[in-house]
UniProtKB/TrEMBL annotation:
The keyword Hydrolase does not apply. The keyword DNA-binding applies. PANTHER family: MERR-FAMILY TRANSCRIPTIONAL REGULATOR, REDOX-CYCLING DRUG-SENSING TRANSCRIPTIONAL ACTIVATOR SOXR. It comes from Streptomyces chartreusis. Pfam families: MerR_1 (PF13411). Keywords: DNA-binding, Repressor, Transcription, Transcription regulation. GO terms for molecular function: DNA binding; DNA-binding transcription factor activity. This is MerR family transcriptional regulator. InterPro entries: DNA-bd_dom_put_sf, MerR-type_HTH_dom, MerR_fam. SMART domains: HTH_MERR (SM00422). Residues 11-80 form the HTH merR-type domain.
């Protein structure tokens, strides 16, 4: 990337930024509209001109998304980071810990689902309705329904 920035006099056009960050131009513009990226300067011809930090910011956004953070959460983290003045970002530890708890809960749910599906495949279950009404069905329909009921409303 440094060669691209140096060759362009320190400013990158949209296509260069998108390419360097591994996103498409529509993603770049969307993040700009959402306020995740500051509005870039414009060339005399009206082209968007970004600094090299835009590539870093895009990479941070994509990495945070891969870690399970929503764009709203990423925006909050970026905003906090912009105002830290060399100090650690307050709340990052708490947000990462909360995200970890969410991931652990999803893993537990997926483990339960996987166990039920393995059981269904091993038992040769082929008709969901018949299986659910059979007393000898190995799938824990009642238990799974109870877990969902205790989880509270979905909306």
């Amino acid at each position: 990337m440094n060669d691209v920035v140096a060759a362009s006099g320190g400013a990158l056009r949209s296509g260069q930024v998108a390419h360097e960050a591994g996103v498409n131009i529509q993603t770049l513009r969307y993040y700009e509209r959402r306020g995740l990226l500051p509005e870039p300067d414009r060339s005399p011809g009206g082209h968007r001109l970004y600094g090299g930090e835009a590539v870093t910011t895009l990479r941070i956004i994509k990495a945070a998304q891969r870690l399970g953070f929503t764009l709203d959460e990423v925006a909050e983290l970026l905003e906090a980071g912009r105002h830290r003045h060399g100090r650690p970002v307050p709340g990052l530890q708490e947000r990462a810990a909360a995200k970890l708890a969410e991931v652990d809960a999803r893993i537990a749910d997926l483990t339960t689902i996987r166990t039920a599906l393995v059981t269904a495949v091993a038992a040769g279950c082929d008709d969901l309705t018949e299986c659910a009404t059979s007393s000898c069905c190995p799938i824990p329909f009642t238990d799974l329904a109870e877990e969902n009921r205790h989880a509270g409303p979905c909306c």
